[in-house]
Design a protein that fits this description.
This protein is of the alpha+beta class and about 180 residues long. It is about 20% helix and about 30% strand. It has 2 domains: about 130 residues, no CATH class; about 25 residues.
Length: about 180
């Protein structure tokens, strides 16, 4: 065991958060636009920040699901920095659930390990700030805020105090933040 500064987290960059990204959910598209075989849909998407209510982004889209073996979604937007048009083509695929119907998925177009195309079948794709492509969590190396905060009391002062008292860091945190009865 080292001291409080000997942790791998000290001075390292944390992963980017899913919550900071624009996201596309294939399940939402399928429900909202009643995707099935032999359909075509068009529309507009907007992303609103849930905390501030500010507009985070927007685009138009075209989706073609005429043939479930060759389905696609195309997003069109304008780059906010350069003003140039941007287009993303996303392949769609399906699976058949046990009790029938179709479940729609995106095929990730990002770069997997060793520079090969990812091609993961995913429900959600993300576009982090400053990125040029929609990709899965693995391709963008994203994590959830809750994952970063889950063990934040396992290190540092809580860990040292807990070690001195012979309890876990979580127990130390509970003691430190417990409400005292009024009296």
């Amino acid at each position: 065991m080292g001291n409080i500064f000997s942790t791998r987290w000290f001075g390292s960059r944390k992963k980017r958060l899913v919550e900071a990204c624009l996201s596309l959910d294939s399940g939402w598209f399928a429900r909202m636009y009643h995707w099935s075989a032999e359909t075509e849909t068009h529309g507009t998407l907007t992303w609103i920040d849930p905390e501030t209510g500010a507009l985070r982004g927007g685009c138009t889209f075209d989706a073609a699901t005429w043939d479930v073996t060759d389905a696609w979604l195309i997003l069109r937007a304008q780059d906010t920095n350069t003003g140039q048009p941007v287009q993303w083509a996303i392949e769609l695929t399906t699976t058949r659930p046990t009790f029938g119907g179709l479940r729609w998925w995106f095929l990730c177009g990002g770069q997997g390990g060793h520079g090969t195309p990812c091609r993961r079948r995913v429900r959600t794709l993300y576009l982090p700030p400053g990125s040029r492509f929609f990709g899965c969590r693995a391709c963008h190396r994203l994590t959830y805020r809750s994952c970063q905060e889950a063990h934040k009391f396992d290190r540092g002062a809580y860990a040292e105090l807990a070690h001195m008292q012979g309890i876990t860091p979580a127990e130390m945190h509970a003691r430190m933040t417990a409400r005292r009865p009024a009296g």
